[in-house]
Structure formats: C-alpha cells, structure tokens
Amino acid sequence: MSANLFYPRVLTRREWLRQASNGFGMLALSSLLAESARGVTHHAAKARSVILCFMDGGPSHVDTFDPKPLLKKHQGEQIGTAAVSSKSQSSPDRVWLGSPWEFRQYGRAGIWVSDLFPYLASMADELCVIRSMVGQQPLHGQQNLLLHTGRVIGGAPSFGAWVSYALGSPSDSLPNYVVLSNEVIPNGGTENYGSAFLPTSHAATMLRAQGIPMDNIAPFDLPAVQRLKLDFLRDRDSAYARSTGDDAIDSAIKNYEIASRMQTSIRELTDVGGEKEKTRHLYGVDQANEYKRSYSLQCLRARRLVEAGVRFVEVNCPMDHANNSPWDQHSNLKKYHETNAMYTDQGIAALIEDLKQRGLLDSTIVVWAGEMGRTPHTKQITETVGRDHHVNGYSIFVAGGGFKKGFTYGSTDEFGNAVAENPLTVHDLHATILHQLGLDHRKLTFRFGGRDISLTDVHGQVVRELLA
Amino acid sequence: MRRRRRWSTALLAILWSTVPLSAADDAARREHFESKIRPALVQQCLACHSGEWPQGSLRLDFRAGWETGGKAGPAIVPGEPGKSPLIRAIRHEAGMTPMPLGGTKLPPDTIAAFEEWVRAGAFDPREKPGVAAPAAPASKPWEETYNERRKWWSLQPVSRPPVPLVKQPLWSSQSVDRFILAKMEASGLTPARRADRVTLLRRLSFVLTGLPPTPEDLESFLADRAPRAYERLVNRLLGSVHFGEHWARHWMDVVRYSDTYGYESEIPAKNAWRYRDYLIRAFNEEVPFDQFVREHIAGDLLPNPRIDASSQINESLVGTMFYQMGEKREGDSLQFNGIHQEMVHNKIDAFSKAFQAMTLGCARCHEHKLDAVSQRDYYALAGVFMSSRWISNTLDTPERNRAPLQRLAALKPKIRQAVAQWWLESAGEIAKRLEAVEPETEKKTQEEKKPEGKPPEPEKDKKTPLEDPLYIWFELKAAQEKGESVSAAWQKLAEEYASARKQRAEANAREYVPIVDFAKGLPAGWSIDGVGLRQGPVASGEFAVALEGSSAIHMLMPAGLFTNALSPRLNGVVRTPFLSHTNGKRLSILVAGGNLSTVSQIVDNAFMTERQVYLKAIQPQWAKLSLAAGQSGDMPKSKPETEEMRVWAEVATKASNPNFPPRIGLIKKEATFEQERDSRSWFGVTRVVEHTAEKPPADALARFESLLAGPPPADLAGVAARYQRWGSTAIDAWGRNQANEDHVWILNWLISRKLLPSEMEQREPVRLLVTYYRSIERQIADPQTVNGMADVDPGRDYRLNIRGVYEDLGERVPRGYVKVLSGERPWPALENSGRLELANLVASNTHPLTARVFVNRVWHWVFGTGIVATTDDFGHIGERPSHPELLDFLASEFVANGWSIKKLLRSLLLSETFRQSGSISAKAREVDPLDRLLSHYPLRRLEAESIRDSLLAVSSRWDPALYGETIDPPRTKEDTDKRLFSGPLDGNGRRSIYIKMTIMDLPKFLATFNQPSPKVPTGRRDKTNSPAQALALLNDPFVASQAEFWAKRLIEQPHRTPQQRLTAMFRRAFGRDPEASELVRWTGIVTGFTQLHEGDLGRKLGEPSSFMKSLDVWKDVAHTMFNAKEFIYVR
After folding, report:
1. Would the ipTM clear 0.90, i.e. be above it?
2. Phi (first) and psi of residue B538, to 5 degrees
3. Which of B630, B1013, B1024 sits opposite A191 (nearest CB)?
4. Whether the model pTM is above 0.95
C-alpha cells in the first residue's frame, strides 16, 4: 500500500520538477491546490463542494434510518394486495420481514439509527435524515442513472459534471469531479459518471483505492527519459504547429504539460502518508480488513480532494461478494448489510468529523444515498432471507453544507412500504444541493440539440425545509 | 406542496349546497369546459399539477384532483370563485403564490373563463387522471404551421443546379471544384496550392482505409511519374479490402453500433459482429446505397434478397440488425410499464436521424416545436415498428452445409438398421437389466443436498410416478418381497391404469382442444426458422445420433418438428402468432429440448424478455404458455394499455433465441460461460392444445395398455418378461420404420434407464457407422444467425400517447410515414407492418432527404465537416448548408450514378478541392476561420480507431485479417458477473473495429480519443483535445507495448547507422523521409536515450553496433515518434 510501490521513482521526478526551468511541470503544490474557480453562481453560495457517499445497490431503509416496529410484530404475515406497488418488487403473497437490528435514538435530536452504524450514530446531531425519497422504477440501472444524471435512460451529464461545469475548476491539472472507485462498474455503466454533451473535461476522473489510482497516471518512463522525450517533443511539435498554423496542435502541446503535472498532482492528492497519526486512526486507514481499509482510505482522500478545491467527489463502496452490487441483498441481508456497514460506517463518520474539525463541513455537502431502498417484505422467511427493490419511500442523509443538523424529514407508512408525507424526488434533492452551491437548477442549462437542457429537466424544486 | 402552505385552511368547507344550478344545460357546460378550461389547464397548469408527485400535492388533471386538493385542501369551491384558492392564485391575490408560477399572468379573458366555470359549479367530466386531454390548441392551427414549415429547404425536391461560372476556370474543370471555387471567389479567397504527393498519399490512405501508407506505398507512388498516378492511387485504395473496414466503422457511428445491450449486465447483442462484417462487405462490394437502405429498413421483406456467395449468407436479412442496436432494457411493459415505448423511441430517433437527419423523436409528446413533423407522424411510424417482432434471423443459404447434411441424412437409415438389429439381439437382456435397477437414487442425493433445517420429506411422497414404467415394477417387486401375490398386485395395477387412462383421456378430450399438430404442418400465423427445421417435420421414430461417448443413439423422436435430427448444432425456432390474451384461453405446447434451448414468452414485443424457461427433457412434456404477469395470474385485462400489448411465444435453440444468453442472473445457475458458448442446443415440438383449465393436459398413459394387457404374470420373472416383450415390440416396430409415439417413448425410456446396450465398442458395425457419422457432423459449420426483425402478423395501428404518456392513449393513428415525406398521400390500408413500403419510400430516387443526407455524411468523412455541419439534423435546429447547390448537385449525381458510394468518393477525392494543401492564407484566417469555404484542406486529428490501428500497423503487430467474432478490450479489472471480460492488451493485433463495444464500460483507449457512446446516432464525433489523451499516449501500456514490439523488429534489421534506421522509421510512422535537420535532431535524442539507459555505454559510443541493438533505446525512439503530434494528425 505504500505509495512508493507505485511511484518507485518519485523523488527523482520531484527533483527534476523543481529543477526544470522550462515551464514544464513547474507547479508547486500550493498553487496546484489553489482555488481558482471560474464559474459564476446565481446567488450567494453556502457550500462549494459535494461528497456523495454512494451506497451502490440500495441499502434497506427499514434496517438503517427508518425504524418500523410493526414489521417485527407482523413478521411472516402476507402483505396482501393493498401493499403491492409498481415501485417495489412485490406480490400479495409476500410476507413482512422485521429488521434484524435494533434501533436507538442518538444525539440531542434523538435521530433514529440502527445498530448497523455505531460510528454514524455518534454523529447524529450533524445529520439531516430524509426518510421519504421517491424514485421512478425499482431497477438498479434506471435508478442509478436517475441519481447520477437526473434521467432514467442516461445520455445526460452526471450531477458531478454539471457541478464541475457550473463552478469551474480550481486548477487545470486537477480533476474537478472525482470518483473514488473500488473498481465496481455501477449498474447503468460508466455513463453515470460521464459528461455527455458537456465538455469532456467535466467527466469524472476515477481514482482507484487499490494499486495505481488512475489509468495512465504512473509514468511509463524513467523520469530522465520522460523529461528527454517531453523536451524533445515540445520543440518538435512546436515546429509542426508552426508549419500547420493550426491552434489544435498548440493545445495538444499544452495538454502534455498538464499531463506531466497531473502525474505529480494526482499522486500528491492520493498519498495520505503525510496525514497525522490521529487522523489516520480516526478514519481507520490502517485497518486489518482490506475492504474497510480501502473505504477509509477513499474517505480520507475525499477530504483531501475537497480541501484542494475539487468540486464533486463520489466515494464508492467496495464489494466483497458476488451480488449484483454491494448493497443489493436479495438474500443474506443480515450477513452482507452487516459487512457493508462495517466497511463504510467509520470512514463516513470520520469524514464528517474531520471536515467539521477543519471548518470545512459548512462548505461541504456530504450525501449518503443508495439508488433505492429495500422492500419491507420478502418472498419467504429463511435463514438467508433478503429484501428486494423498493423506490417508494427510502432513506438517505445529508450532512453539512447548510443543511439542517439533527433533523429528520418526511416519513413512510407504518410498514415502511410507501411514502407517507413529504415525498422528495431525486430532482428535488439535486435542486436543493445546487441551491446550496449558489446555483438555480432552472438556470443551470446547456444548449444541446436546440434545447436548453438542465440537470432536473422540468422537475424538482428547492426544499427549504431541509435547509438551516 | 411547499408553495401552497399559505392557502387558507378555512376554505376546507365545501359548500356544495350553495352551488347555484346554472340555467345552462350539460352541453353548454361541457362546451365551456372543453373550449376554455381544459386547454388552459393543459397549457398552463398540468406541467406541474399532474402525475404522481404533483407540485403542492395538487393535481388538476382530473376532477377528484382539485376536489381533494393539495396540502391546503380543495383548490376549488364550486360556485364560489372568491373562495377558490385556484382562482385567487391565478388572480395573483395577496397572500397567494401567484400562478402560473414563474410564468406571466393569464390573460383577463382566461381568468374570467375560470371564474365563470367555478361560478357555474366547476363542471369537470374528467373522471380519471390524465386521460383524454386533447392536443392543446396551439396559437395557430397545426395545418397552418405545417404549411409554413414544409417550405424548409431540406424538404424540397433535390434540384440539379447548373455548374457555376468562375473567374479562374483554369484551377479545375471538375464540377465539385467549380461550386467550391465560386463561393471562395465571392468571398475574395483563392484556393491553396496543391499538396505535395507525400502529403496526399498519407491523407488519402487515412481517408480511405484509416491506415497509414506503407513504405512500399510511398515508394511506388513516388516512382509513378505518369500523369494519372494519383487517379490510380485513388482507385487502388478504393479497391483495398481495408476500405470497407474503415467506412463500415463510419457507418457504425451512425447506427449506434454496439456489441452488447448493457444496462445492468452486458447482454450480448446477438452476433452484432455479423452485421459489422456485412457492412464491411457492403462497402467493399459497392452495394448501391438505396439497396443498403432497403436492407436496413426491411431486409427481411425484400422479394429478391442479396446473397453473398462466399459466406453463403442472405445479406439482406442482416440489415435489420440496425434496429436492434441501441439502448435496451430487460423485462417487458407488464413488469415495467412503458419500457417498450422507451425502447421504440430509441428506434424511431435512430432511424430518423440516420437516414433522414430528422429529429422525429421530438414529436413523441407534442407536435415538433420547429419542424414540419406532427405528433401523429411519430405514432404512424411507431405503429410500423411496433407491428414487427424483434427476433433472431437465420442467414444461411440452403447451399451452406448442403453436402455434409445430405451425407448425414443418407447415413441414418443404415445406422437405424444396424442399431435395431443390435438392440433386437440384446432385447433378451432387458429383463435382466431391469432387475438391477435401483429406485430413484439420483433424486435421493439431490434431496440430501437441500439445506439443513428442513427434514427430508417422507419416502412415500417421492415414490415413482404413475407415468414412469418403473412404478409398476417397483410396486410388484415390493409385493413379492412382502410375500404377496404378484398376479393379484398386477391385476390391481392394471385396473388402476385402466381407470386412470379412461379418466385422463376423457378429461383431455373435454378440456383441451388440439390446435396444432406439427407433424402435419403449420397453421396460419405460426412460423418457423432455422437450418434444423428446413427439412420439415420428422416422422415418428426419427432419431438423433449420439455425438460423443459410447452410446450410439442420443434419443428418438415422435412425429413433429425437431431441430436435431441431423445435428444438435443446427438452429431452429417455432413462433406462435400474436396471441389474444383477453379470451381467457391458454395454450400448452408439447415440447422436448436440451442444451439451453428455451420456451420464451414475449409480452408487448419485449426487446429482452425475462420470461424464459430452459428445456431439459428428452421425452416431450407439456409447457403451458401462461402469459403470466409477475408470479401469478394471466394478463390483467383492466387497463387500456395492456390491451394494446402484443403477446407471443417462441421455442428456440440458443442461436435462434434473440435473447440468449440473457443477463447473468437468469443463467448463472444453469450454465457456465463455456456451456453458453457451446453451439449445441436442440428442441422438438409435437402438438399444441388450447384450454381454459389451469393446468396443461395430463399424460394419457396409453403406452401402458400393451404392457398390462393379457393374463397377469405369476411372479416377478414373468413381469420382467412382459417388460422385455414390451421393449422388443417397440424395437421391432422402430427397425421397420413403423414406430409410433408410444414406441418412441418406450425406447427413449429404455435408453435412459440403460435397459438397452449402449457400449457400441462391442458392436463393430454400429461403431463404424456412428464414428463415420460423427466425423461428417464435425464438418458442419455452425449456422449463422443475427438479431433482426420479422413480420409475421397483420400490422396493427398504435394509439397516440397523449403528451407522450403511455397510459394516456389517444386516437389510433394509421400506420404510415411522416406526412411531409410521404408525398402527403395517406398510405393505402396495409395488411402488414408497412416496413417494406417505408423502405421503398425512403430509398426512392425522388426522396428529398435520403441522398442529400448520405452525400453530406460522405463529405463530412472526407473533408472533416459536412456541407451541412450538423450531419444528423437537417431541420431548423441544424445548420444551413454552406454550399446548398453543391449538395444538390452531388445528391442528384449520386442517384443518377446508381447510388454508388465509390463513384461519389472518386468525384470528391479527384477534386482539386481535396488535393489542396493545408496552408491557410491570411485572408482565409480572417474571413473564413472555420474553413467552411474550403480554401485549404483542414488539419485533422485521426479518429480513435486510426490512432490505435496506426500503432499496430507501424509496429508491424497488425494482423490484417478481416471479419470475425469480437475481441474483448483490455480492462484493469474484470467483472464476469456483468460480462465485462478482459482481453489481450493489443487485441491480438486486430484493427479496432473488431474490439468489443461494451456499452457499460467502453474500450478505454478508444473512448479517450472520442469513439462515441453507442446509445444514439453520432454522425459527427467530438474532437476533444484532453490531457487524458496525452497521458494515454505517454503512459498507456498498450502504446508502450507497441513501441517495444516495433523496437524488437528494428534492432533485428541490418541498419548500419542511426540515420538509416530513423529514415526507415519516419517512412512507417509519418509516411515521409526526414529532412536533414530532423535527422540531426533525432540522432541527438538517440544519443540522449543511449546515455540515460546505459550508463556504461559512454565508453562504447565508438561502437555503433551496441546501441543499435539496444531495445531500450529504440523503444524510446519509437515511443517518442508515437507521441509526436504528426503521428496523430493528418494534413
């Protein structure tokens, strides 16, 4: 895991970078991380960055943040026709299933959290829990694309790409939208992270937890060899540019300079070796469990990225089993929800705590969300029982960024089977987050195919009840 | 919900009693509502106040919506406009959120109309949500708008403009050049001078083949000093087989080509690569473009399909794979409402953009905002596409495999004779073998594998069923063991069977109506396809030779349609007609099958049905086509959109199943990837019955009559003898070609129970014949299938979806095409889908768009920008043509030349316009910075595929083979559960067109250089210039591997000096010789690399041979060349 394994020649390159006098790679870390947003906001911004802790697969709401004691009471009883819904995998002969975990109230606000998340529970007073998310179709691909692009069929820019496009990039050698990936291609495909018709520079840059964090970022050459090549190419290509008289060549040459700098900047950002022992301990980056260690590392990197001015960071869950996606427990709910929670709980809680300690939480919106919830019912109760897909009322939470603290919004019915009050759509969530970033979701548009297209299309509204 | 808070809750009181009963009668109130209120609601309110999550929880799209009201209670108090929140909101009264929100206040007369409506009791006939909102009356009637819009330039007939006069006629006598020059002159520009021959060679090579010129090309072109050398070069490159590869890839952008339908897991787009190969052949063989269009739209319906002699493929059938491309989702509309409409939308969008450069998709919800396309046009075309089925087509001509199949057929009677003889001779062992049979041991072990916690079911419950002959045997054996009378037990069993037979036969006759006997032919509406079914139904007693192992016979067949009579690798499919699901009838089909053949039910013409059952039985069994929604029950009948659904079923082998393999979750437990890929798969069908009963017919047990006839045997030996006689009779009948259905059943049972000898090693004549049969069977080439379309049912018009909402069905729109492109005549009433009519219309010589759009695409691919820059949109949103007369001239020439693509290309490539150099004049930089007037040839970055292909070609790793299955791209991590496999780093040296396009995770190297995402047509690729591209060329292991591969070759060559080697490298990489100054500089970097790599080499500098052999040094030189801009740009 040592960074030196992947950058065996780091020191030499750094020396070279410092010595280079030709402008190539001349970028000190301080200026690399400097804020230099070019974007224009619509109103004063409360927050400047978003971290989406994406719970890929759909954690069960009735096992995490939405306690339903009645489920336990009626466990095994058929749900009947009235509980069947096109927004859930359901049929009348399914039976209610109680949660295997206990719920308790935490913090001054008495936020309900299940025993799955002891660390997050300790942060209860920072959380704005929403228990009334409503999706469109109970399918992973569609819901993932909806959460990420505002459309169930894709073909639209990712939320992160919109934010990057709107707010601009702090530096041209620093990606502005980063997915801290664990190499799980989510349902819906890499389109979830694409820029679609927005300029490609706003597509997500994927940084892996394991191994070399980014494709093609580790230099293939010895530093001196690369320097020789780059110097030679710059001279040669400049001559070529002059002979063609075309600006495209000039910008291609410039891209080599940026690429060269990225080899350094990405390493600097992802290397947590310089973090204090206390911080490393807080996140658990030295954990024995490799999945938990990866996730904690990515959470710590998320903080470093936000600190450096990156606008949108997504942290993905690791997958230790062969389900469709990490939280997709159609079976073995108990076993795998427990491990998923164990991998992610400490890292996210640490992230919130760390951001808070550094005074960054107010300007950073941390979102914890899957693409769906899970049915409060199941086909039959067995040892390996699981829950299926459900989009009519599920739970997410937001922390920081001017959202209310220690607050619970919306509710589902007493079985957790349908939203009961204050339904919140993904478009509403997008609109409200954009609002906190100083952006009006109706005005943030890009003209494509003759239309002004926005993240929220014709939907969504800013939900002020969620805001402090 | 949140904006409504301020509405007074005091208004909750509904004062029904105070509603003044207007004097107006119902008709007048209805008239008022329909003419004033409904349109205003639709236009002003419903965008937010309708659907499942309306703003403020208030719905205005049906009466109960405003009656219940939003969070603040009812929106209207009938009779009391002043107390109705809705009225107060549209009046913008204080304390109310002004409505429409964000819009302008409604005109006074509209507000007055609302007030009047509420005062008169708020008559509202809308009982159900969202239903029957008539199209919002536009400010102008559609006809008027249409008549204006149809004057748009691209909808006018193609003219034949005269070639313009120019001031400098000496520049060129070619027509293309005159059009270009005239525009240049009008802007005061002059053409650039001709490019030099070296530049032209490289440019032409990339434009025509997507590959760099070879040193040999360079040498021979430079040596050819004859006047027509350039023309010869153009012709030579047009004749290259690699021309087809490059131009097929262009077209693949337009048809959104992909090898998978990815969403949650990469489902293979069945044999899409065969469509890719079809494109390569079509471009190489000069298939006229109008024919190409017809094949894409209706290749399955053409009266004279085009046949490729070498591959023995019906080429025309491949074309309809075009429709199957693009976005797809698992499941059907009954599971996920609207899935089908979403997917059909993708087809309409792709069709209209690819062939017509129209954005017909915009008319799904309303009349087109800008173009002469109505919402009716959209649904007329939807009706055409929805009338066809999404199936897999068999491409093999009857000639393919003819010889081996004939030889197999000729061998079979001999095998039957030899085997029958063998079996007859060994029939005496049946009794002995029977006595050794153990009861149901297999089932026991399965039972034991069940998870603990459940006690094993009592032995009694899993006794051998009545249908199994062993039932009788075990019963009697038990009787004998208990010391009871075998003959009495026999007598009892005979009676039990007689009574069961009678009862079942009567019930079957009463409840089940036979509707198909496949031995006798197909009733109307049923259809079959596949090489395995081409010989027609088999006679009872036909058999399948075992193709491996020691057995001679795999199985015997009753009369019916079987795919495996000659080989289990032959494909086949039997399809039902569209089934009515409202008459309460069910179908059951008697079917056998194995190796992942399936019975599929397709609801609403689903693109990827999930209702598939794998067949696993040698003895035919009844399969009920339940057409079930979800887990239980038949199709719901209550909803109008359900009644529109087309439902059908098919029994298919793997190759003929358009949805095989399905997503991983539906097959993981059935088969490994290897089993998926195995080309064997077979099925047989014999009969179909119709019934209302819940269950399929019962087994009538007729075959037991002969076993149980006669006086009861005295002991178990006597019983065994009866079985032996029963078997012998069947063998004898089979040997004489007279086996009936029961004989076949008995023989299959004897084989499966190993009651007949199977070790053919002990029977030389059988072994020889079967071995010979197997050797011929192996010569059969697997049948070729590809997904496509079929018309097998009468076409059906679809209904307009109001505001594009598929639950809101409006009027039925007759099938047809966009009115403005149909000569404005309604189509005659169509029996079929109308696809053939559509194909002929689109491919007609007088169509205003088809030729223009394609000629423009070709221009785009040759010059980098189309005459109309927006290649996929010739409508109002698109750009106007830079040279409208030239576009028409080229389109009319194209049609006059028989839609020949190569003739068109020749006229462009021989033009002086194309042959200009890339030097930009100061004047051009000022007046025409985008080079729309083409006063020089634009500098172009290579497309993604050409960059990768150039790396392979230059390093000499390239394998120039054409065609074939795809190669997985390299991935940093495989995810086999999503079918994201990783392939070799260099793709085995194959060109990029052969690398698998997986939608979920596109080939990274190619995507980095803007290979488009295959969801929608992309006529014009992005040309981004990003740091990721620099990083890829600098650090991607593929690029490094090619540098190394090249260097290995180089250091083997007997170059004596670095200059000599560098010159050779320049020729390969840049298609030219280095200048003297360049040689000096490159020699310098060779020295630099040498010093860096071999610290001790400084001592050896005097010995040129050592660094000339250094892999490290030359790998770095090669890598530097790959990173030079000149490598990826063409001028």
Report:
1. no
2. -90, 155
3. B1013
4. no
